[in-house]
Design brief:
Helices cover 51% and strands 10% of the residues. The protein is α+β, with helices and mostly antiparallel strands.
Length: 1615
């Protein structure tokens, strides 16, 4: 009990905390003091009183942990290098394709418009007609019609794409109907754009030369420029300068519209300004803002906001309308030019078919000058065949050029290479096009035959007359064009500064659903969203701090999509912080598995600490920042104590977890670490252990007592969902809007107790969540870990399952199962209707046991899908889990998985109609795909059986019936054994059969190969086998990191009969077995249970003996145990002869037992009398461990704190003869387990009354233990057997019918068959007698059902392979988006100090906070060359280790120690640490850090002076409530941050942290249940108020008393 007492208030100056300030650090550290200024020293970590580690001189030799790289920590350098090289290729290739596609699309568009000009005449090449003559060609009307149609098709194709996309989203997802007025306005603007495009293509561009046309396309930004100008708000920085530039840009655009009409004085050119302004109306939406100072623009901004939801509905109609309008205007233009509109249809066949081109020979006197008319009689003509396919080739070039430009441009935006690979090539498209056109036109004018072999001589761009390059440069037009180009660049400047997240959706990147093919570069520039994200800069943090009152290191995630919901003033910036709760379920994990799991959590802790410290001290804004907390739910964590059956203690698995914590931390931080012992909490469900990890995140282990709360994994998940989302979130005293924002950014990372992962894997899953708010869950790539043939099989099985099946589900619908071993769930999705609540359904029916309890993670995902949420798979997020290594364990695991998978998919299929309606991501096609898979699963055993029959025939040259008999007998025998024998016998037989089938399969493989050789490569079997193996191999090549998984494919092939036949049969026939089947251990038993077992064993032994040999001789005289004889003899126990028999007297032992029981009864009654006389002197009551009720009522599930012992209970009491009084125990106050020395001597604390009540209510409502009611259990067992029998019958009949039909068809193949056209055998026979050659063809004959089944599996394979290719592209995009190339951005020399810090902040902090080498031994193993070992400083390091030193146990303390010693003067301060390999000893880096350090320290001094200078008797600030409710933060020193709150408290879950993060601003009561754990610095101290000393030490304004007894609870003086 000593460890439980509250600590007394320390006398002045004697608390441990009083001494530490003076002992630690130098003066700089004191100016920088915070809660971390007092480290977690050796006394805290080891539980001793010494604060200084002392080492004996002879015992200085060390055994530091060796870094072992396995699983997630395996060497990734090769992969990282490959990814960086891949990203370089992505930069270059994307740039080239976007630029090339843009230039080709632009050039082909101008080429097409050049041929549309009426009566176009141009010089013709005289190479084939006569070198000494000049020729001119005029395009016939057929040729013009062909090019008009080409332009129509080029315009229509993207609109058809927009129509298909809009229809798909409206039909398969949700849509909103716009207001009529809004729709009409959008219709007007789109109509103007379509009319303008027709005028530009068919009136303007044909009238001017191609170079002028290319320049003119830079003048299509008038309306966007005007709207952009009018949308500028007063809050923008440098608004006046921007407005001036806006005006200049719009003026430049306008000059471009009128310069040619004014200069060339042609009436038709006045269409230019009309067409250009009308086209620019199409991009209005991107440039209006709801915040504009003008009412009209604000109204347009509101239409824009509505269009986010109504766009696809509108474009179903607008796409068709724009195509029709464009076509109609084209006909009108054609008619206005004096042509018959019917010619466009009448000449269509001739235009795209063979026709003639008339070439005119010029008389010698014209001298190459083109005449006005070619109809004079003296001009000769030559008919030339038209290259009529040219128009098709040019059209295809235009279509693919524009499409590739758009697709790769979008790809560049998604993987965050927009500046170089999107904005740059888009801006270069027109300059490069103009350059090429100038060169091409100049060459063509000089030499008409230059392009003779590439372009038909009668086709070319409209060239300027008498064009020369020198003239072009000197003309004013060229300089004017530069102004137009610059004005377009300014108006589209946003494409150079993207703000979107990784892998942003198309809707976030672009306004219109598709691109404009004819004006691809303008479309890419002006259609790219300007407001893809809110622009938050690091310098805005101080403003955020003032407005929001949040600490400056709380981040506004730039990934948060503000566009989906309007900004509500009640939502604080901190509500959008990502919160990750890792929730692991543990049961009977091994030490190695626990260590891998703990190391993963330690890595997360280190990463979170680095991100927190980077924001806290380096003032950087980290978009990937998150808060992190770990919860482990330990099932069946208690067992009967060793000393008494009445008490409980933690079982060996909990103790193993406690023992491995230090080892895991030491391995991660590469130095010996002793974590502080866990704080212990008695709870209504059992107990709780709370560690604070080196990175200051909490590690909370919930110990479940199965007699107090329901055990098994699903109920652990219910526990953490209701605790974290119900109690700690929904009971917060904050507004609904804030709760909604917090829930949307709260994620539960579900883990198994043996998982191994890195922080980056979690970040990738969070990326998916941020990208799509409809995403309810996301899972990563699970890699099985272990050794042996079963693990090799699973390596290939997991690989194929993820490569093909999960990728397909992700691409064409939703992933059906996000495995509980490593998945991220969105809190808001789990809280939805019919998810969390339905997940608490108790299994009362046989089907529930199969669907709900055997595969709980799959059922949870089914519930999310049925509520409309999406579930995704990220192949880049790797996690490693231990898989079954033994045959029996594997079969038992799959015995759970197979029925639950079938049950959940059947549930989804049965509810398909409603699910399709509510879930946008699940379509009828996806349901059809799942039905095909389900059919394949059900008929799988029959298929494998038929395969074996056929393979036996091929391999062993036997007939069909013999093969059938050989195969059916063992399968029927196995089914009989599964029905009649115990599980271990079933598994033994399965193992024997699997081994036999593996040997047979090897022969089958050989036989199949022989059969394929006989049938040829064209047979269906050969095609299917080759395509299957080929798809597996290609999939492996596309997953280079996992390529070697394919080497286990041979084991997979050998195991096919075992896994797809025997395993399915075993699972279905054992459907009634609902035990877990893996990690089972024998539970510890009470003495009574052991005695009962012993007695039962003796009885059984006696019964066996009685039934032994010659027992029939004794049958006449009864049991023989109740008689004895005066004379008797026996022979070897075979028989016994008794003479003079008489009744047996009472046994002495029985008499003694009876006497002992009577004495115990007397003693109990005496104790009862004594306790009544002297209640304080004698404690006879004991803690009731076992439940005393057997009813199923949940009203009696809790045990009383002290169980009164009645007379009836005395019979069940232990025969404890000790005279010592027994301590009275209450499981919520002083349970025995908290005193167990194996649980360490940590502090003991208690839950708040609010949280205790929550747990009691939760247990009452959902989690009360289910009593073992024999009647109910018998009913469930009977129902399960009935369900099993029905399932087996249906399953057996389906497979039997399938086998029977196919087998009979196979036998009668010669009568009923389908001739296979491929693989035909040709037999040639020569008959010498008649000299005849007989040629006969032999076709393969296939039975219809077999052929259908082959095509069925082939279709599944094609679907999966195609989906895998698309998913691979998405995964590579994700990896590339997450990869940074330092040399592709600014060089470090070009970066400012702030940019340098911001760029490398987290990496710098991770190196500065390393615990390894904190004492300066950085070069322990350094050095290179042959004498590297000899130069190792072994003795110096040992001597240094011997010196007394303070243990630094937290990462932020290590960071501060190094950070405060940073100086750019390396000569005077050699202690400056190495930062990273890339930044090693960089003077710029260290100087930048030093500047940031000095800035932060200056702010802290200023803040301290302002805060502590107030008049206060106790030296504590009270002017402003520090944590919003008047409570003082729990700190070691009186310093507070410049935001008026302890830095620690913001991340502390207790003691006011939630007030700041979730804060109520002084109103409402703090949810004490939420603040469940108080930071260790606060817990280890008690606050003592002392009158201010007139001459105080500057760092002792507030004294803190340390615990002086190694354990202890809360400080008595804490406010």
């Amino acid at each position: 009990m000593s460890a439980m007492r509250h600590r007394p208030m320390a006398p002045p100056g004697q608390g441990a905390g009083a001494g530490t300030a003076g002992e630690h650090g130098d003066s700089d550290d004191n100016n920088f003091t915070d809660d971390e200024s007092s480290p977690l020293t050796h006394d805290i970590y080891g539980g001793s009183q010494r604060t200084i580690q002392e080492t004996k001189g002879w015992d200085v030799f060390r055994d530091p942990p060796i870094k072992i790289e396995t699983g997630s920590t395996a060497n990734q350098e090769c992969l990282e290098l490959t990814v960086k090289i891949l990203k370089i290729f992505a930069y270059v290739i994307t740039f080239i394709i976007v630029l090339t596609g843009g230039v080709i699309a632009k050039g082909t568009m101008l080429f097409m418009t050049s041929q549309v000009r009426k009566d176009k005449k141009m010089e013709y090449c005289n190479k084939d007609l006569g070198r000494d003559k000049s020729f001119v060609v005029r395009l016939p009307e057929e040729e013009r019609v062909a090019w008009i149609w080409a332009l129509l098709i080029a315009y229509a194709l993207p609109e058809i794409g927009a129509l298909i996309r809009s229809a798909r989203i409206c039909f398969f997802k949700t849509f909103k109907v716009p207001k009529t007025g809004h729709f009409l306005f959008v219709w007007l603007m789109e109509s103007l754009s379509a009319v303008g495009m027709a005028l530009l293509m068919f009136v303007v561009l044909p009238q001017i030369d191609a170079i002028q046309g290319a320049m003119l396309t830079n003048c299509l930004c008038v309306v966007p420029g005007i709207f952009g100008l009018l949308s500028r708000t007063s809050k923008e920085g440098k608004r006046f300068v921007k407005v001036i530039i806006d005006l200049a840009a719009v003026a430049a655009q306008v000059t471009g519209l009128v310069i040619w009409p004014l200069l060339e004085n042609r009436r038709e050119l006045w269409v230019i300004p009309v067409a250009c302004v009308m086209i620019s109306c199409g991009w209005w939406e991107n440039y209006v803002s709801p915040q504009s100072p003008l009412g009209l623009v604000r109204a347009l901004g509101r239409i824009k906001e509505e269009m986010k939801y109504t766009r696809y509905f509108c474009h179903i109609f607008l796409s068709i309308w724009k195509i029709l309008l464009f076509f109609t205007v084209t006909l009108l233009i054609y008619w206005a030019q004096g042509e018959e509109p019917g010619n466009l249809f009448a000449m269509y066949g001739d235009a795209f078919g063979p026709h003639k081109i008339i070439v005119y020979e010029l008389p010698a006197g014209l001298g190459g000058v083109l005449p006005d008319t070619l109809e004079s009689a003296n001009i000769d003509t030559v008919d030339v065949d038209a290259a009529y396919n040219t128009v098709v080739y040019v059209l295809l070039l235009q279509i693919f050029g524009a499409y590739l430009c758009y697709i790769f441009g979008k790809f560049a935006c998604k993987i965050l290479i927009q500046g170089f690979s999107y904005a740059f090539p888009v801006s270069l498209t027109v300059p490069l096009s103009v350059t090429f056109l100038i060169a091409a036109c100049g060459i063509r004018i000089d030499d008409p035959c230059f392009f003779h072999d590439t372009i038909p001589d009668y086709l070319f761009f409209t060239s300027p007359s008498n064009f020369r390059f020198n003239n072009f440069v000197t003309e004013q037009m060229a300089w004017a064009w530069i102004l137009w180009l610059l004005s377009q660049t300014w108006i589209a400047l946003h494409i150079w500064t993207p703000k979107c997240e990784r892998l942003a959706t198309t809707e976030k990147l672009f306004v219109q659903p598709m691109y404009s093919s004819l004006l691809i570069d303008q479309s890419m520039a002006l259609n790219r969203r300007r407001d893809d994200q809110a622009d938050v800069k690091t310098e805005d943090l101080s403003e955020i701090e003032k407005e929001k009152g949040d600490e400056y290191y709380e981040t506004i995630s730039v990934h948060t999509d503000r566009s989906s919901a309007p900004n509500k003033p009640s939502i604080k910036s901190s509500d959008n912080i990502t919160r990750i709760y890792s929730c692991a379920t543990m049961w009977h994990e091994t030490k190695d598995e626990m260590i891998e799991f703990l190391k993963s959590i330690m890595r997360m802790d280190e990463d979170q600490c680095a991100r927190r410290v980077a924001q806290k001290y380096l003032r950087v804004l980290d978009p990937d920042y998150y808060e992190f907390e770990t919860h482990i739910f330990f099932d069946d964590a208690f067992e009967i104590s060793d000393h008494s059956d009445d008490d409980i203690q933690c079982n060996r698995f909990v103790k193993l977890l406690i023992a491995t914590m230090d080892e895991a931390a030491s391995e991660i931080h590469q130095t010996t670490i002793r974590l502080r012992p866990p704080k212990k909490y008695p709870t209504p469900y059992g107990g709780r252990l709370v560690w604070t990890l080196p990175g200051k995140t909490k590690f909370i282990t919930h110990l479940k007592d199965k007699d107090r709360i329901r055990h098994r994994k699903r109920w652990s998940q219910v526990m953490y969902m209701y605790y974290l989302l119900g109690h700690r979130l929904m009971e917060l005293p904050i507004s609904v809007d804030r709760k909604d924002a917090i829930a949307e950014n709260t994620y539960l990372l579900t883990l198994d107790g043996d998982i191994d992962f890195k922080p980056n894997a979690v970040t990738l899953l969070v990326d998916l969540m941020k990208k799509n708010k409809n995403l309810g869950a996301a899972c990563g790539r699970i890699h099985p870990v272990g050794s042996g043939p079963m693990v090799w099989y699973q390596l290939f099985e997991y690989a194929i399952g993820h490569w093909l099946q999960k990728a397909t589900e992700h691409m064409i619908g939703c992933v059906l199962c996000s495995p509980g071993c490593f998945s991220l769930f969105r809190g808001k999705a789990l809280m939805d209707d019919n998810v969390m609540k339905k997940y608490t359904t108790r299994s009362d029916e046989a089907r529930h046991y199969v669907q709900y309890d055997q595969g709980e993670d799959r059922w949870l995902c089914t519930l999310l899908l049925q509520r409309g949420y999406r579930v995704e798979y990220s192949a880049a997020s790797d996690a490693y889990t231990h898989c079954p290594e033994g045959f029996n364990e594997f079969y038992n695991q799959r015995r759970r998985w197979v029925p639950s998978t079938i049950a959940n998919i059947m549930d989804l299929l049965a509810d398909a109609k409603r699910t399709i309606k509510i879930n946008d991501n699940i379509s009828l096609l996806y349901i059809f795909y799942q039905m095909m898979l389900m059919g394949g699963t059900i008929l799988g055993p029959g298929t494998i059986f038929l395969m074996l029959v056929g393979a036996f025939v091929a391999a062993f040259r036997i007939d069909n019936w013999t093969s059938f008999h050989y195969n059916i007998v063992p399968i029927l025998a196995f089914m009989f054994i599964c029905f009649t024998c115990k599980s271990n016998i079933q598994l033994f037989v399965a193992q024997v059969l699997s081994t036999a089938y593996a040997l047979i399969m090897m022969a089958v493989i050989v036989g199949t190969a022989l059969q394929l050789g006989e049938d040829g490569i064209g047979s269906p079997s050969a095609i299917f086998l080759i395509s299957m193996v080929g798809s597996f191999f290609i999939a492996a090549c596309l997953h280079p990191q996992e390529f070697w998984c394919i080497t286990c494919g041979l084991i997979y092939l050998l195991s096919i009969p075992s896994m797809y036949l025997l395993l399915i049969l075993y699972s279905i026939i054992n459907l009634n077995v609902v035990s877990w089947g893996t990690r089972e251990v024998v539970a510890k038993k009470t003495k009574k249970e052991l005695e009962a077992e012993k007695k039962a064993a003796e009885e059984a032994k006696k019964r066996v003996k009685q039934k032994s040999m010659l027992s029939f001789l004794q049958s006449g005289i009864g049991d023989n145990g109740d008689e004895e004889g005066s004379v008797e003899f026996s022979l070897a126990g075979l028989f016994r002869c008794i003479f003079c028999t008489h009744g047996k007297t009472s046994d002495e032992k029985q008499q003694l037992t009876s006497i002992a029981e009577s004495l115990d009864t007397i003693k109990h009654r005496m104790d009862t009398i004594e306790s009544a006389v002297d209640p304080h002197g004698h404690h006879a009551s004991r803690h009731g461990r076992r439940r005393t009720t057997s009813s199923g009522s949940k009203d009696h599930h809790l045990l009383t704190s002290v169980a009164e012992k009645s007379g009836d209970e005395s019979d069940e009491s232990d025969s404890d003869t000790s005279a010592e009084p027994k301590q009275e125990r209450d499981f919520l106050t002083n349970p025995y387990w908290i005193e167990d020395p194996d649980v360490r001597k940590g502090e003991v604390d208690f839950l708040s009354s609010t949280e205790i009540q929550f747990w009691k209510d939760l247990i009452d409502q959902y989690l009360y233990p289910i009593d073992n009611d024999p009647v109910e259990q018998a009913r469930i067992a009977s129902d399960l057997i009935e369900l099993r029998n029905k399932s087996v019958f249906a399953f057996f009949m389906a497979n039997a019918l399938f086998v029977l039909i196919v087998f009979l068809l196979q036998l009668n193949k010669d009568k009923l068959h389908i001739i296979w056209p491929l693989g035909v055998k040709t037999n040639i026979t020569y008959i010498e007698e008649t000299s005849e050659v007989h040629i006969s063809k032999e076709y393969l004959q296939l039975e219809p059902i077999g052929l259908v089944f082959v095509f069925f599996f082939a279709l599944i394979l094609i679907i999966q392979f195609t989906a895998m290719l698309f998913h691979r592209f998405g995964t590579i995009s994700h990896i590339l988006a997450s990869t940074e190339l330092n040399f592709c951005k600014k060089k470090s020399e070009d970066l400012t100090q702030d940019q340098l810090i911001d760029k490398h902040a987290v990496e710098i902090v991770k190196n500065l906070q390393r615990l390894q080498g904190i004492d300066g031994d950085y070069d322990n193993d350094s050095g290179s060359g042959p004498d590297r070992i000899a130069r190792r400083k072994t003795i110096q390091n040992l001597e240094k280790a011997r010196q007394p030193r303070r243990q630094i146990g937290t990462l932020d303390v290590a960071f501060k120690k190094r950070f405060l010693k940073l100086t750019a003067d390396a000569e005077n301060n050699p202690a400056t640490p190495i930062l990273t390999r890339r930044l090693t000893m960089r003077a710029e880096t260290i100087r930048a850090l030093e500047v940031r350090k000095n800035s932060v320290m200056a702010e802290r001094r200023k803040s301290a002076m302002q805060t502590l200078g107030a008049k206060n008797e106790y030296g504590i600030t009270t002017g402003a409530p520090i944590n919003n409710n008047g409570a003082l933060p729990n700190q070691r020193s009186g310093r507070v941050s410049n935001a008026g709150i302890s830095i620690k408290d913001v991340f502390n879950v207790n003691g006011g942290a939630a007030e700041q993060i979730y804060g109520s601003n002084g109103g409402g009561t703090i949810n004490q249940g939420y603040e469940h754990v108080i930071d260790e610095d606060a817990d280890g101290n008690s606050l003592r108020l002392t009158t201010r000393n007139p001459h105080p030490h500057p760092h002792h304004q507030v004294s803190w008393g340390q615990n002086t007894n190694g354990g202890g609870g809360n400080g008595t003086g804490r406010l």
